[in-house]
DNA sequence: GTCTATATGATGATAGAC
DNA sequence: GTCTATCATCATATAGAC
Protein backbone atom coordinates (compact mmCIF):
# COMPACT_ATOMS: atom_id res chain seq x y z
CA UNK A 1 0.00 0.00 0.00
CA UNK A 2 2.74 2.45 0.91
CA UNK A 3 4.56 1.15 -2.16
CA UNK A 4 6.34 4.05 -3.69
CA UNK A 5 8.29 4.07 -6.87
CA UNK A 6 11.67 5.78 -6.89
CA UNK A 7 10.12 8.36 -9.12
CA UNK A 8 7.40 9.19 -6.57
CA UNK A 9 9.96 9.25 -3.81
CA UNK A 10 12.03 11.81 -5.70
CA UNK A 11 8.97 13.90 -6.47
CA UNK A 12 8.12 13.98 -2.81
CA UNK A 13 11.61 15.14 -1.89
CA UNK A 14 11.46 17.82 -4.56
CA UNK A 15 8.00 18.92 -3.42
CA UNK A 16 9.20 19.51 0.10
CA UNK A 17 12.06 21.68 -1.11
CA UNK A 18 9.91 23.60 -3.59
CA UNK A 19 7.37 24.23 -0.84
CA UNK A 20 9.94 25.41 1.68
CA UNK A 21 12.43 27.36 -0.38
CA UNK A 22 10.44 28.10 -3.49
CA UNK A 23 10.85 26.64 -6.97
CA UNK A 24 13.49 29.04 -8.20
CA UNK A 25 15.46 28.92 -4.97
CA UNK A 26 15.68 25.16 -5.14
CA UNK A 27 18.46 23.87 -7.37
CA UNK A 28 18.55 20.44 -8.96
CA UNK A 29 21.62 19.88 -6.79
CA UNK A 30 19.53 20.58 -3.68
CA UNK A 31 17.06 17.93 -4.75
CA UNK A 32 19.76 15.41 -5.61
CA UNK A 33 21.56 16.05 -2.31
CA UNK A 34 18.38 15.49 -0.34
CA UNK A 35 17.85 12.26 -2.24
CA UNK A 36 21.43 11.14 -1.69
CA UNK A 37 22.35 11.02 -5.37
CA UNK A 38 24.14 13.32 -7.79
CA UNK A 39 22.36 15.95 -9.82
CA UNK A 40 22.96 14.28 -13.15
CA UNK A 41 21.19 11.15 -11.94
CA UNK A 42 17.93 13.03 -11.60
CA UNK A 43 17.75 13.29 -15.36
CA UNK A 44 17.35 9.55 -15.64
CA UNK A 45 13.92 10.06 -14.02
CA UNK A 46 12.84 13.47 -15.26
CA UNK A 47 13.31 15.66 -18.33
CA UNK A 48 13.84 18.82 -16.38
CA UNK A 49 13.24 20.60 -13.11
CA UNK A 50 10.19 22.16 -14.68
CA UNK A 51 8.62 18.82 -15.45
CA UNK A 52 8.99 17.92 -11.79
CA UNK A 53 6.80 20.79 -10.55
CA UNK A 54 4.49 20.16 -13.43
CA UNK A 55 3.89 16.59 -12.36
CA UNK A 56 3.52 17.60 -8.70
CA UNK A 57 0.97 20.30 -9.41
CA UNK A 58 -1.11 18.60 -12.05
CA UNK A 59 -1.65 15.37 -10.16
CA UNK A 60 -2.65 17.25 -7.03
CA UNK A 61 -5.10 19.44 -8.93
CA UNK A 62 -6.72 16.43 -10.48
CA UNK A 63 -7.40 14.86 -7.12
CA UNK A 64 -8.71 18.06 -5.56
CA UNK A 65 -11.14 18.86 -8.33
CA UNK A 66 -12.43 15.33 -8.26
CA UNK A 67 -13.42 15.93 -4.65
CA UNK A 68 -15.16 19.22 -5.47
CA UNK A 69 -17.08 17.59 -8.31
CA UNK A 70 -18.35 14.95 -5.90
CA UNK A 71 -19.70 17.59 -3.54
CA UNK A 72 -21.40 19.58 -6.29
CA UNK A 73 -23.05 16.43 -7.64
CA UNK A 74 -24.32 15.41 -4.20
CA UNK A 75 -27.77 15.90 -2.72
CA UNK A 76 -26.87 17.83 0.44
CA UNK A 77 -28.51 21.16 1.10
CA UNK A 78 -26.56 24.30 0.10
CA UNK A 79 -25.17 25.02 3.54
CA UNK A 80 -23.93 21.45 3.98
CA UNK A 81 -22.30 21.54 0.55
CA UNK A 82 -20.49 24.76 1.42
CA UNK A 83 -19.29 23.25 4.67
CA UNK A 84 -18.16 20.13 2.85
CA UNK A 85 -16.14 22.15 0.35
CA UNK A 86 -14.39 23.95 3.20
CA UNK A 87 -13.66 20.68 4.96
CA UNK A 88 -12.29 19.04 1.83
CA UNK A 89 -9.95 21.98 1.38
CA UNK A 90 -8.53 21.83 4.89
CA UNK A 91 -8.18 18.10 4.45
CA UNK A 92 -6.12 18.73 1.32
CA UNK A 93 -3.85 21.01 3.34
CA UNK A 94 -3.40 18.18 5.82
CA UNK A 95 -2.79 15.46 3.25
CA UNK A 96 -0.94 17.45 0.61
CA UNK A 97 0.86 20.17 2.47
CA UNK A 98 3.72 20.66 0.03
CA UNK A 99 1.55 20.57 -3.05
CA UNK A 100 -0.81 23.19 -1.66
CA UNK A 101 2.10 25.39 -0.61
CA UNK A 102 3.73 25.17 -4.03
CA UNK A 103 0.46 25.96 -5.70
CA UNK A 104 -0.10 28.94 -3.42
CA UNK A 105 3.37 30.36 -3.89
CA UNK A 106 4.17 29.63 -7.49
CA UNK A 107 0.94 29.29 -9.46
CA UNK A 108 0.61 32.97 -10.30
CA UNK A 109 4.06 33.21 -11.82
CA UNK A 110 4.22 29.76 -13.40
CA UNK A 111 0.79 30.35 -14.90
CA UNK A 112 2.33 32.97 -17.18
CA UNK A 113 4.08 30.22 -19.17
CA UNK A 114 2.34 28.12 -21.81
CA UNK A 115 3.26 24.89 -20.17
CA UNK A 116 1.38 25.85 -17.03
CA UNK A 117 -1.66 27.39 -18.67
CA UNK A 118 -3.80 24.69 -17.07
CA UNK A 119 -3.22 26.38 -13.73
CA UNK A 120 -5.26 29.37 -14.89
CA UNK A 121 -8.00 27.02 -16.11
CA UNK A 122 -8.15 25.32 -12.74
CA UNK A 123 -8.34 28.69 -11.08
CA UNK A 124 -11.39 29.54 -13.15
CA UNK A 125 -12.90 26.15 -12.40
CA UNK A 126 -12.39 26.71 -8.68
CA UNK A 127 -14.14 30.07 -8.91
CA UNK A 128 -17.10 28.37 -10.62
CA UNK A 129 -17.36 25.80 -7.84
CA UNK A 130 -17.40 28.31 -5.02
CA UNK A 131 -19.66 30.82 -6.73
CA UNK A 132 -22.16 28.06 -7.45
CA UNK A 133 -22.16 27.01 -3.82
CA UNK A 134 -22.51 30.57 -2.56
CA UNK A 135 -25.30 31.48 -4.97
CA UNK A 136 -27.23 28.36 -4.04
CA UNK A 137 -26.73 29.34 -0.43
CA UNK A 138 -28.12 32.82 -0.99
CA UNK A 139 -31.09 31.78 -3.08
CA UNK A 140 -32.02 29.01 -0.65
CA UNK A 141 -32.10 31.60 2.12
CA UNK A 142 -29.26 30.03 4.09
CA UNK A 143 -26.90 32.94 3.42
CA UNK A 144 -27.46 36.68 3.72
CA UNK A 145 -28.86 38.30 0.61
CA UNK A 146 -26.68 41.40 0.93
CA UNK A 147 -23.43 39.48 0.44
CA UNK A 148 -21.07 40.36 -2.38
CA UNK A 149 -20.60 36.71 -3.39
CA UNK A 150 -17.56 37.48 -5.51
CA UNK A 151 -15.85 39.02 -2.50
CA UNK A 152 -16.96 36.25 -0.16
CA UNK A 153 -15.58 33.75 -2.65
CA UNK A 154 -12.17 35.38 -2.56
CA UNK A 155 -12.34 35.66 1.19
CA UNK A 156 -13.02 31.94 1.57
CA UNK A 157 -10.54 30.82 -1.05
CA UNK A 158 -7.75 32.90 0.39
CA UNK A 159 -8.34 32.11 4.02
CA UNK A 160 -8.64 28.44 3.43
CA UNK A 161 -5.52 28.00 1.33
CA UNK A 162 -3.32 30.44 3.16
CA UNK A 163 -3.73 28.26 6.25
CA UNK A 164 -1.05 26.06 4.71
CA UNK A 165 1.44 28.62 5.97
CA UNK A 166 0.81 27.86 9.60
CA UNK A 167 -1.07 24.58 9.78
CA UNK A 168 1.00 21.79 11.35
CA UNK A 169 -0.07 18.27 10.40
CA UNK A 170 0.01 16.22 13.58
CA UNK A 171 -0.07 19.37 15.72
CA UNK A 172 -2.45 20.47 18.45
CA UNK A 173 -5.27 21.23 16.04
CA UNK A 174 -6.39 18.59 13.56
CA UNK A 175 -7.66 19.67 10.17
CA UNK A 176 -11.14 18.89 11.46
CA UNK A 177 -10.65 21.31 14.36
CA UNK A 178 -9.41 24.05 12.10
CA UNK A 179 -12.30 23.55 9.71
CA UNK A 180 -14.78 23.69 12.61
CA UNK A 181 -13.35 26.89 14.02
CA UNK A 182 -13.10 28.46 10.62
CA UNK A 183 -16.69 27.61 9.71
CA UNK A 184 -17.87 29.07 13.00
CA UNK A 185 -16.17 32.38 12.22
CA UNK A 186 -17.28 32.40 8.62
CA UNK A 187 -20.87 31.47 9.27
CA UNK A 188 -21.57 33.37 12.48
CA UNK A 189 -18.86 36.02 12.86
CA UNK A 190 -16.70 36.79 15.86
CA UNK A 191 -18.95 39.23 17.75
CA UNK A 192 -21.30 38.35 20.57
CA UNK B 1 6.02 67.09 -3.24
CA UNK B 2 6.12 64.25 -5.71
CA UNK B 3 9.87 64.85 -5.88
CA UNK B 4 11.54 61.54 -6.30
CA UNK B 5 15.21 60.90 -6.28
CA UNK B 6 16.63 58.61 -8.95
CA UNK B 7 17.29 56.14 -6.19
CA UNK B 8 13.61 56.05 -5.16
CA UNK B 9 12.56 55.80 -8.76
CA UNK B 10 14.76 52.77 -9.28
CA UNK B 11 13.50 51.17 -6.08
CA UNK B 12 9.93 51.59 -7.26
CA UNK B 13 10.74 49.94 -10.58
CA UNK B 14 12.45 47.07 -8.79
CA UNK B 15 9.54 46.72 -6.36
CA UNK B 16 7.07 46.28 -9.16
CA UNK B 17 9.15 43.54 -10.73
CA UNK B 18 9.83 41.78 -7.44
CA UNK B 19 6.10 41.88 -6.66
CA UNK B 20 5.05 40.51 -10.03
CA UNK B 21 7.73 37.98 -10.89
CA UNK B 22 9.24 37.27 -7.51
CA UNK B 23 12.63 38.30 -6.16
CA UNK B 24 14.61 35.39 -7.53
CA UNK B 25 12.85 35.47 -10.88
CA UNK B 26 13.77 39.10 -11.35
CA UNK B 27 17.29 39.68 -12.65
CA UNK B 28 19.26 42.88 -12.24
CA UNK B 29 19.07 43.08 -16.02
CA UNK B 30 15.28 43.08 -15.81
CA UNK B 31 15.43 45.99 -13.42
CA UNK B 32 17.96 47.89 -15.50
CA UNK B 33 15.97 47.28 -18.69
CA UNK B 34 12.80 48.57 -17.09
CA UNK B 35 14.72 51.64 -15.97
CA UNK B 36 16.26 52.17 -19.39
CA UNK B 37 19.86 51.75 -18.25
CA UNK B 38 22.41 48.93 -18.24
CA UNK B 39 22.73 46.46 -15.41
CA UNK B 40 26.16 47.66 -14.32
CA UNK B 41 24.81 51.15 -13.79
CA UNK B 42 22.51 49.94 -11.04
CA UNK B 43 25.54 49.33 -8.87
CA UNK B 44 26.22 53.03 -8.78
CA UNK B 45 23.06 53.31 -6.67
CA UNK B 46 22.94 50.04 -4.76
CA UNK B 47 25.37 47.50 -3.33
CA UNK B 48 23.44 44.49 -4.51
CA UNK B 49 20.06 43.20 -5.55
CA UNK B 50 19.59 42.04 -1.99
CA UNK B 51 20.05 45.51 -0.58
CA UNK B 52 17.30 46.69 -2.90
CA UNK B 53 14.65 44.39 -1.41
CA UNK B 54 16.02 45.12 1.98
CA UNK B 55 15.44 48.83 1.58
CA UNK B 56 12.00 48.26 0.06
CA UNK B 57 10.84 45.97 2.85
CA UNK B 58 12.33 47.74 5.84
CA UNK B 59 11.01 51.19 5.00
CA UNK B 60 7.53 49.81 4.40
CA UNK B 61 7.53 47.91 7.67
CA UNK B 62 8.57 50.98 9.57
CA UNK B 63 5.65 52.97 8.24
CA UNK B 64 3.12 50.21 8.86
CA UNK B 65 4.10 49.57 12.43
CA UNK B 66 4.01 53.25 13.16
CA UNK B 67 0.35 53.18 12.17
CA UNK B 68 -0.40 50.16 14.38
CA UNK B 69 1.34 51.82 17.34
CA UNK B 70 -0.88 54.85 16.91
CA UNK B 71 -4.01 52.71 17.09
CA UNK B 72 -2.88 50.80 20.15
CA UNK B 73 -2.02 54.03 21.94
CA UNK B 74 -5.41 55.59 21.16
CA UNK B 75 -8.48 55.82 23.36
CA UNK B 76 -11.03 54.08 21.14
CA UNK B 77 -12.99 51.15 22.51
CA UNK B 78 -11.70 47.64 21.67
CA UNK B 79 -14.01 47.03 18.77
CA UNK B 80 -13.17 50.37 17.16
CA UNK B 81 -9.46 49.67 17.55
CA UNK B 82 -9.83 46.29 15.88
CA UNK B 83 -11.73 47.87 13.02
CA UNK B 84 -9.10 50.59 12.71
CA UNK B 85 -6.31 48.02 12.48
CA UNK B 86 -8.16 46.21 9.70
CA UNK B 87 -8.74 49.48 7.86
CA UNK B 88 -5.11 50.55 8.16
CA UNK B 89 -4.05 47.22 6.68
CA UNK B 90 -6.30 47.47 3.65
CA UNK B 91 -5.10 51.03 3.21
CA UNK B 92 -1.53 49.77 3.15
CA UNK B 93 -2.50 47.34 0.40
CA UNK B 94 -3.91 50.28 -1.54
CA UNK B 95 -0.96 52.61 -1.00
CA UNK B 96 1.87 50.08 -1.02
CA UNK B 97 0.74 47.27 -3.24
CA UNK B 98 4.15 46.08 -4.36
CA UNK B 99 5.70 46.23 -0.91
CA UNK B 100 2.89 44.21 0.63
CA UNK B 101 3.07 41.66 -2.19
CA UNK B 102 6.82 41.26 -1.80
CA UNK B 103 6.46 40.88 1.92
CA UNK B 104 3.73 38.28 1.49
CA UNK B 105 5.61 36.25 -1.07
CA UNK B 106 9.20 36.48 0.06
CA UNK B 107 9.32 37.18 3.79
CA UNK B 108 9.21 33.55 4.88
CA UNK B 109 12.19 32.56 2.78
CA UNK B 110 14.20 35.76 3.12
CA UNK B 111 13.66 35.63 6.88
CA UNK B 112 15.90 32.57 7.02
CA UNK B 113 18.94 34.77 6.30
CA UNK B 114 20.68 36.88 8.95
CA UNK B 115 20.31 40.04 6.99
CA UNK B 116 16.53 39.73 7.05
CA UNK B 117 16.14 38.58 10.62
CA UNK B 118 14.20 41.76 11.33
CA UNK B 119 11.36 40.32 9.26
CA UNK B 120 10.81 37.63 11.89
CA UNK B 121 10.89 40.29 14.62
CA UNK B 122 8.25 42.31 12.82
CA UNK B 123 6.17 39.19 12.45
CA UNK B 124 6.25 38.68 16.21
CA UNK B 125 5.44 42.33 16.76
CA UNK B 126 2.45 42.06 14.45
CA UNK B 127 1.21 39.04 16.39
CA UNK B 128 1.45 41.04 19.61
CA UNK B 129 -0.59 43.87 18.14
CA UNK B 130 -3.44 41.67 16.93
CA UNK B 131 -3.54 39.44 19.99
CA UNK B 132 -3.71 42.50 22.23
CA UNK B 133 -6.61 43.88 20.23
CA UNK B 134 -8.46 40.55 20.21
CA UNK B 135 -7.97 39.91 23.92
CA UNK B 136 -9.19 43.40 24.78
CA UNK B 137 -12.17 42.69 22.57
CA UNK B 138 -12.97 39.46 24.38
CA UNK B 139 -12.53 40.80 27.90
CA UNK B 140 -14.59 43.90 27.15
CA UNK B 141 -17.42 41.63 26.03
CA UNK B 142 -17.39 42.86 22.43
CA UNK B 143 -16.13 39.55 21.06
CA UNK B 144 -17.29 36.00 21.74
CA UNK B 145 -15.62 34.36 24.71
CA UNK B 146 -15.33 30.96 23.00
CA UNK B 147 -12.95 32.24 20.31
CA UNK B 148 -9.51 30.73 19.88
CA UNK B 149 -7.83 34.13 19.64
CA UNK B 150 -4.62 32.66 18.25
CA UNK B 151 -6.55 31.11 15.40
CA UNK B 152 -8.65 34.21 14.82
CA UNK B 153 -5.45 36.24 14.68
CA UNK B 154 -4.07 34.04 11.93
CA UNK B 155 -7.31 34.18 10.00
CA UNK B 156 -7.41 37.96 10.15
CA UNK B 157 -3.75 38.43 9.32
CA UNK B 158 -3.90 36.06 6.38
CA UNK B 159 -7.16 37.24 4.91
CA UNK B 160 -6.24 40.87 5.13
CA UNK B 161 -2.81 40.59 3.53
CA UNK B 162 -3.68 37.99 0.95
CA UNK B 163 -6.15 40.48 -0.52
CA UNK B 164 -3.13 42.05 -2.19
CA UNK B 165 -3.39 39.23 -4.72
CA UNK B 166 -6.67 40.41 -6.15
CA UNK B 167 -7.21 43.98 -4.97
CA UNK B 168 -7.04 46.51 -7.79
CA UNK B 169 -6.17 50.07 -6.74
CA UNK B 170 -8.47 52.35 -8.65
CA UNK B 171 -10.87 49.48 -9.39
CA UNK B 172 -14.57 49.08 -8.67
CA UNK B 173 -14.06 48.58 -4.95
CA UNK B 174 -12.06 51.12 -2.98
CA UNK B 175 -9.99 49.96 -0.04
CA UNK B 176 -12.69 51.45 2.17
CA UNK B 177 -15.34 49.27 0.49
CA UNK B 178 -13.24 46.15 0.86
CA UNK B 179 -12.57 46.89 4.52
CA UNK B 180 -16.29 47.45 5.15
CA UNK B 181 -17.33 44.20 3.51
CA UNK B 182 -14.59 42.29 5.18
CA UNK B 183 -15.45 43.62 8.63
CA UNK B 184 -19.09 42.72 8.07
CA UNK B 185 -18.16 39.11 7.35
CA UNK B 186 -15.63 38.91 10.14
CA UNK B 187 -17.82 40.51 12.79
CA UNK B 188 -21.22 39.08 11.90
CA UNK B 189 -20.67 36.05 9.66
CA UNK B 190 -22.30 35.22 6.36
CA UNK B 191 -25.42 33.40 7.53
CA UNK B 192 -28.84 34.95 7.98
C1' DG C 1 25.03 58.82 -13.64
C1' DT C 2 25.72 55.70 -17.32
C1' DC C 3 28.50 52.79 -20.43
C1' DT C 4 32.06 49.23 -21.93
C1' DA C 5 34.02 45.18 -20.86
C1' DT C 6 34.66 41.40 -18.13
C1' DA C 7 35.49 38.37 -13.91
C1' DT C 8 33.43 34.86 -11.22
C1' DG C 9 30.45 31.62 -9.84
C1' DA C 10 26.17 29.01 -9.93
C1' DT C 11 22.79 26.41 -12.48
C1' DG C 12 20.29 23.40 -15.70
C1' DA C 13 21.35 19.91 -18.50
C1' DT C 14 23.99 16.11 -21.41
C1' DA C 15 26.92 11.85 -22.76
C1' DG C 16 28.76 7.83 -21.80
C1' DA C 17 30.98 4.55 -18.28
C1' DC C 18 29.80 1.41 -14.52
C1' DG D 1 19.75 3.58 -11.46
C1' DT D 2 23.78 6.15 -10.34
C1' DC D 3 28.34 8.22 -11.22
C1' DT D 4 32.07 10.84 -13.68
C1' DA D 5 32.97 14.58 -16.20
C1' DT D 6 31.75 18.45 -18.44
C1' DC D 7 29.22 22.15 -21.23
C1' DA D 8 26.64 26.16 -22.18
C1' DT D 9 24.23 29.63 -20.24
C1' DC D 10 22.92 32.89 -17.30
C1' DA D 11 23.32 35.88 -13.14
C1' DT D 12 25.53 38.86 -9.86
C1' DA D 13 28.93 41.92 -9.43
C1' DT D 14 33.32 44.85 -10.45
C1' DA D 15 36.70 48.40 -12.60
C1' DG D 16 37.57 52.09 -15.04
C1' DA D 17 36.42 55.17 -19.15
C1' DC D 18 33.22 58.82 -20.63
Automatic annotation (TrEMBL), chains A, B:
Residues 27-46 bind DNA. The keyword Repressor applies. It comes from the Bacteria. One of its GO terms (molecular function) is transcription cis-regulatory region binding. Residues 4-64 form the HTH tetR-type domain. Transmembrane segments: none annotated. Keywords: DNA-binding, Repressor, Transcription, Transcription regulation. This is TetR/AcrR family transcriptional regulator.
